[in-house]
Amino acid sequence: MARFSDKVAIITGSSNGIGQATAVLLASEGAKVTITGRNSDRLEETKKLLLNAHVPENHINVVIGDITQDTVQETLIKTTLDKFGKIDILINNAGAGIPDPQGKTGVNQSIDTYHKTFELNVQSVLEMTQKARPHLAKSQGEIVNISSIGAGPAAQVANPYYSIAKAALDQYTRTAAIDLVAENIRVNSVSPGAVATGFSNVSRGLNEEKSKKLYDYLASQKECIPRGFCAGPEDIAKVIAFLADRNASNYIIGQTIVADGGTSLILGAHAHGAKMIEAV
Ligand code: NDP
Fold first, then answer.
1. d(Cα 94, Cα 14) in Å, to the nearest integer?
2. Is the beta carbon of 192 within 6 A of some atom in ligand 1?
3. The pTM is what?
């Protein structure tokens, strides 16, 4: 029997990147999936990928909309229940760094940017968790949140509110995990490092060509990504699937699994290696 046979999953932010790869992975291993995002063309692309992976059309539910909107959240829950009868897995993946409209960084970023960043990366996760909770309690289900190594402990001056939001999300994961474990709902999260997706386009304003150059550069510098390559969305989807699979990860509660090719293990000083000694 396939790993996710008879499971129903909602994957937010599945019109692109990590969420899209996760929807394809879970569904190709048997899950019925609700896919969602604002961009209808890209959602259609996800649907095509699912059909190409031989996922039956009646295993796919599509909801177009902004995850920060209450009506969209309600629609996600309601249409999933109407179409599939239950919810087993909630993947809170939608997220982004919201660029400051005036290009400001650090402590000068606008408070409006802060609100928008938190609405998407934190508040929508809280709200989806509240709405899915009774259904996950019934099915004894799983929640996987997608955080980032940007959450710390390294400082993030370029886009601080995004990092602060992900740090808040990590604490929410731990708190929700303990609150919900009594109902037999497991909550965990994944913290990716650099992953080649649409993220740098949205969060850094880079086009496809410049994004690729950035990922190639990071991969070529051992102090940036010791593993030597930039992850693809499928690399992160596999970690998400592990945490969404009770058979595989039943005893893991409230943890954040870092999947960053070693990025967060390098201190600036260590990156200089033997050159540090030569310098003295
Ligand atoms: P992408 O930009 O490729 O995908 C982001 C997804 O989120 C899209 O499907 C997008 O859909 C959706 N989304 C964004 N804002 C909204 C919104 N307001 N309402 C509904 N959906 C929304 O990026 P990734 O796949 O890389 O990002 C997935 C997660 O991974 C995010 O939480 C991100 O913070 C995290 N992450 C990514 C890293 C990376 O290097 N790529 C590193 C660390 C963490 P649409 O545009 O159609 O609305």
1. 8
2. yes
3. 0.97
